[in-house]
Amino acid sequence: MSSLLEIRGKAYVLSDAKLIELQQLAAQSIGTRDLLRQRGLVLEQTQLIRELQLLQQHIEQLEQEIKTIVEQAREGKILASMGIGLIQVATIIATIGNIENFPNAGSLKSHFGWAPAVAQSGKTLDWTGQTRGGLRTIKQMMFLVVAHVIKQDTQWALLYHRLVEKRCPYDERRGVRVGRLRVFGRVAGQMIETMYALLKLDAEVLSNVPNGQEPPAPTLYDPDVHRRHREGHYQPLKSSPRKASITLLPPILSE
Fold it and tell me: Domain of 132?
């Protein structure tokens, strides 16, 4: 019983009475009294635990190697400056491949599964949602990215909370604001547009660097420039000085 209490910890999902009941049911329904069978089960369990530990070590080693590569890559530095985790950055880079494969930010959003879908009949039908296309893995990952950045002190969080207050009506019965997924889509779309603008700019910079010459540092996302942009002080990205940590968002991000 003491072991069960220790495993349960401070999260009282099960009461003491339920733990006792669980212990009794386990004693009656799990296991075998055959000594040879018991020995075989213990051996098998030991081997499975060691295999699991080995797999966990391999995963940790691979993740560390991925993080090291991402930290050194230009694309990794650009995306990580937006507050995205290194493993998620690696997933995004692997999904995009070469940014030149996408003619505009809209095509990249469609590839990610976060492009808006609008249906209008001109009379009674007026519906806006997310496209059903895109890669499921990257679409789910972008949802987690947005869920992370809106909990931090970021411009994305300010945008999210402002739009929730403005566009999500309050449901008195449920005590929550409804329609927040659309705002999620808006934030995800703007983040993808920013990724596209920064990666596209960096690709153009690299294409103009002569062979053998060291390229300049990549242009990173700058939250202060983002804030000034949201306040109406917009300047086209390509006309800005190409310095690291100075980023002006594309016109499509204006609110």
Answer: 73-253
Does residue 244 lie within any of the structural domains?
Answer: yes
The answer to the question of residue 183 being in a domain is yes
CA atoms in the 13 A half-sphere facing the CB of 114: 27
Q: Which residues of 156-183 are buried (b: 16+ CB within 10 A; e: fewer)?
A: bbebbeebbeeebeeeeeeeeeeeeebb
Give the confidence band of 180 by pLDDT, cuts at 50, 70, 90: confident
Total count of residues recorded for the chain: 255
d(CA 34, CA 25): 19
Beta-carbon count within 10 A of 63 CB: 13
How many distinct structural domains can be found in the chain? 1
Q: Do the domain assignments include residue 32? A: no
50: in domain: no
Nearest C-alpha neighbor of 107 from the set 133, 136, 137: 133
pTM score, whole prediction: 0.71
Burial 25-57 (b: 16+ CB within 10 A, else e): eeeeeeeeeeeeeeeeeeeeeeeeeeeeeeeee
